[in-house]
Amino acid sequence: MKNDSAEASAQEDIQWMSRAAADDLDAFSCLVRKHEKAVMNFFARNGVYRDVEDLAQLTFLKLYRARNGYKPTAKFTTFLYLIARQILVDSVRASQRRSALHEKAGAEMETSVEAPPMRGEGQDAQKALASLSPSLRETVVLVVMQGLAYQEAAEILGVPVGTVKSRIHSALAQMRTVLSGES
């Protein structure tokens, strides 16, 4: 049953994207409304707290610009997360360049923003997730938190499926260590 609804949802995305390619703004708006929270969660779970909405907006802007080149050879969400991942990578690089410039100029700049306070197990899980390297965190976010298949995550990350499986295994082991207090 769940598979049927997921397939129908995927087909709906393809139809909306095809209509968006024909300059149907209502269809594109439907895509944005359907996926905006998931895209914002993707950024938040990858350690972006302050600029989540801006990065999501950039993702959908880039999606809109790419609408004519979209070919439904893979799931729409794979295409969407490829764009979101590139926006994330660009954002991290820009942040690193800004930090280096400020450091070089001798200016002090806060380079990280604390996540909003959380309570209980959620806070522990967020701490464990934050302890991961960017590549492990990104893989966990896509597979565990966003619910993508290993194959989809591999396509988005540009790595073999085996690498995704290995990263998930390593990340979960590292998170267990952090959660058990053995770190």
Summarize this entry quickly:
This protein is mainly alpha-helical.
Describe this entry's structure for a reader.
The structure is a single chain. The protein has 183 residues and is mainly α. 74% of the residues lie in helices and 0% in strands. It is built from eight helices and no strands. It has helices spanning 2-21, 25-45, 52-65, 76-105, 120-130, 134-145, 150-157, 161-180. Helix 1 packs across helix 2, helix 3 (52-65) packs across helix 4 and helix 5 packs across helix 8 (161-180).
Relevant terms:
183 residues; mainly alpha; 8 helices; 0% strand
* Envelope shape: globular
Please state the oligomeric state of the protein chains shown: single chain
Question: What is the gyration radius calculated from CA atoms?
Answer: 18 Å
Biggest sheet, open or closed, and with what strands and sense? none
Please report the total strand number as a whole number: 0
Please describe the topology of this protein:
Blueprint: H1 2-21, H2 25-45, H3 52-65, H4 76-105, H5 120-130, H6 134-145, H7 150-157, H8 161-180
Helix pairs in contact: 1-2, 2-3, 3-4, 4-7, 5-8, 6-8, 7-8
